[in-house]
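Q: Structure tokens for this one, please.
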Amino acid sequence: MEGNIETIKEYIDNAEKCDADLTVFPELSVTGYPPQDLLLEIDFVKQNKELLTDLISHNNEMAGVIGFVDYVGRSLYNAAAIFVGSKIIDVVYKTLLPTYDVFDEDRYFETQKGRQVKPVPVNIAESQIKLGVEICEDLWDEAYDTKVTDLLAKSGSNIIINISASLFYVGKRYERERLLKTKARTNSTPIFYVNMVGGQDELVFDGQSLAVDCSGNHKSLATRY
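A: Here is the predicted structure, written as tokens:
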């Protein structure tokens, strides 16, 4: 996890040098995905949160979103920290927990309830925006009653950010792009999709981060993490 934090810090510093307004990292960036039974180790969970908190406490002015594991008592959450400067503004929890194929998130995590889905007011570049943050499966809502992206848009989100650890298979990038375009057009809200890159045992994460505007038009988006 120390290595992950160092990489995150490096790219926050790079983003500041490039005068970026916001930097976004994938789902469970601090621990890696999936952490599986490491989540049963109390020290592991505590350390992931301590490392993240320390990183943000030494941040300058950059705003951002980072995936980590949060906990309240004995309950664990697949979470996203939203921060500005050296303060965590809010923490958002994943609503839809996948339980198919290689995924078994409800074995470890509690879910955020639909009524808790709302944007987070954030001051970025001297302007306040309502930032809608969701995590991976929250976008892929066809089989679920709760439609997280739609709820965020209806609640007034100016931008929706999806942080993901989405697995590669042939043609997956086109499925993601079609889904993002449809959701953006339906809700008239731009969406930024940031996916993990690399491998975890037999799992491969292909990145392919992208952005679409409120009309569903594909915008260029550099991904370096």
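A few notes: The helical segments are 2-17, 42-57, 148-154, 172-187. The longest strand covers residues 63-72.
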